[in-house]
Amino acid sequence: MPTDPIPTPQAVPGTAGAPRATAPRPLLAAAAVVAVESLVAVGYALWLLVEAFVGTPRERGQAIAVAVTFAILAAPLPLVARGLSRVTMRARTPAVMLQLLALWVAYFMVKAGFWIGAVPTVACAIAGLACLFAPASTAALTRDWRRD
């Protein structure tokens, strides 16, 4: 009785040997901005958790809730940065949403008079949006969507 060998995975027709698009500089810059923002958000979440238990916050429950929210929102951001650096079309939407969310957070920082946090937040968000919508990034990310 002949035994069948273990089947090997086959490549999708039409994609074998298809080179991945190289990431243009603005898209790599956008990936770097998203990566830095994710590090800052995770750092802030950790700082809030430490302060909630070691320090004397006015509202311990609120500090913990904000820390957990930041941690949950920041956890997938390195994947978004990786997707942008690999010119993956589906990474653009979460990256744009992150920049818009950063502008929203910066608005409340300005209202609270926390300019030292608001200015870099706005600068990063605007730089991220400019890099995401640069002509080279748009051309790289709007190729044939069936390949993603």
Can you tag this structure with a few keywords?
148 residues; mainly alpha; 6 helices; 0% strand
Distance between the termini: 42 Å
Overall structural domain count: 1
Query: Could you report the average pLDDT, rounded to the nearest whole number?
Result: 85
Total strand segments: 0
How much helix, percentage-wise, in residues?
Answer: 55-70%
Unreliable parts: 11-19
Oligomerization status of the protein chains: single chain
Bulk shape: flat
Structural class call reads mainly alpha
Bin the strand percentage.
under 5%
SSE arrangement, N to C: HHHHHH
Radius of gyration (Å): 21 Å
Number of helices: 6
Largest sheet, if any? none
Can you give a write-up of this model?
- The chain has helices at residues 25-54, 60-74, 77-85, 92-111, 115-132, 135-141.
- It has 148 residues and is mainly α.
- The radius of gyration is 21 Å and the shape is flat.
- The termini are far apart.
- The model is unreliable at 11-19 (pLDDT under 50).
List the SSEs and their pairings.
Layout lengths: L24 H30 L5 H15 L2 H9 L6 H20 L3 H18 L2 H7 L7
Helix pairs in contact: 1-2, 1-3, 1-5, 4-5
Short description:
The chain is mostly helical. Helix content is 67%, strand content 0%.
